[in-house]
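Input record, target 12 of the design panel.
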């Protein structure tokens, strides 16, 4: 009985951290932006998620490379998030209240056809919850890695096969912080990494992936509700029916949704694509470029693959819009916003030399 109560409490904490906290963090960075989406709950939510992930990257990479303890990371990260929440409560309370009020009005006016979209999203999740999902090779590696971080209070300094302490870390773990982020969630919720990753997170990350597509549909169809409904239903059908290969979006949505490449493919990279189009379509302000910087940093936090993809996509879109708008500022701003990705790419290319330089 006690374990059940602890588990339910952990799920509630997870929901607060991934469901409520981002909505409070978002307005700290969006309130002065002159865009129609500034009052959107979903847009502010995703900006908040990007902030959570980007902060973990900023804190985790230096602490990992200096062999600091995991408990220190938990303290520092929690302190920064707490300070931001206090600032949001002090200076953005009215904005947050208006965001929730606007969301409530939109829900009341929305077509009942959106119920079909919600059914299409949550029924597959419920089905997956009652399946005995196979533990794949990567599942075992990553879940063991997260468990070792929690048990050893170190950051990636245990061999995942033997548990023996090691003195060297693969670059894909030290230069990206996604699995540290999962370990942090396991720590604050008290959920075992296996339960957190294979069960609890699918109820949050899968709807998150569809919500990004909802943002993209609103941008593409200029908030035309009928077209947005058709688009979302098509996305759901394609996703459900696409499980014929390990390389389709279905595989990332419904099999390995908690893993870093899945989070990159269905949440972070689509949001970055959406936000780049939003920013470069019209003249953007400095705060909007700050959010772009944060989104790129969040993309880098998932995988080193995400680092390269972020740079390529942002520079490509900025170049296209610069040509269309005859404004080279788009390209210049993109080059500057990608700075964290450049740094990580250079470190990766000279990884052994960099470790020697810092005395790792």
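The sequence produced for target 12 reads:
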């Amino acid at each position: 009985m006690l374990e059940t109560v602890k588990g339910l409490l952990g799920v509630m904490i997870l929901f607060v951290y991934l469901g409520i906290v981002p909505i409070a963090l978002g307005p700290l960075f969006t309130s002065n932006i002159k865009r129609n989406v500034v009052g959107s709950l979903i847009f502010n939510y995703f900006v908040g998620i990007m902030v959570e992930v980007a902060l973990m990257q900023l804190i985790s990479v230096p602490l990992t490379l200096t062999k600091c303890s995991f408990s220190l990371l938990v303290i520092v990260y929690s302190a920064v998030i707490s300070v931001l929440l206090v600032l949001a409560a002090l200076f953005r309370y009215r904005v947050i209240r208006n965001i929730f009020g606007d969301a409530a009005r939109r829900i009341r006016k929305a077509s009942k056809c959106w119920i079909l979209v919600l059914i299409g999203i949550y029924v597959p999740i419920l089905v997956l919850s009652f399946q005995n999902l196979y533990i794949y090779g990567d599942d075992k590696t990553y879940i063991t890695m997260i468990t070792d971080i929690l048990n050893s209070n170190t950051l990636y300094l245990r061999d995942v096969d033997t548990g023996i302490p090691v003195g060297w870390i693969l670059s894909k773990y030290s230069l990206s912080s996604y699995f540290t982020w999962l370990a942090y969630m396991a720590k604050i919720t008290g959920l075992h990494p296996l339960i957190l990753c294979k069960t609890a997170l699918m109820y949050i990350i899968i709807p998150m992936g569809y919500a990004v597509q909802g943002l993209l549909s609103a941008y593409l169809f200029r908030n035309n509700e009928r077209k947005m409904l058709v688009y979302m239903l098509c996305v759901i059908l394609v996703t459900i029916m696409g499980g014929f290969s390990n390389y389709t979006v279905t595989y990332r949505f419904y099999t390995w949704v908690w893993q870093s490449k899945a989070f990159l493919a269905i949440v972070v990279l689509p949001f970055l694509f959406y936000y780049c189009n939003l920013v470069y379509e019209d003249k953007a302000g400095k705060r909007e470029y700050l959010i772009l910087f944060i989104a790129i940093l969040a993309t880098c936090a998932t995988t080193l693959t995400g680092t390269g993809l972020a740079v390529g996509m942002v520079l490509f879109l900025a170049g296209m819009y610069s040509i269309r708008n005859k404004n080279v500022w788009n390209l210049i701003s993109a080059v500057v916003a990608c700075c964290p990705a450049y740094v990580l790419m250079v470190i990766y290319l000279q990884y052994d030399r960099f470790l020697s330089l810092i005395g790792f």
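The mean pLDDT is 89.
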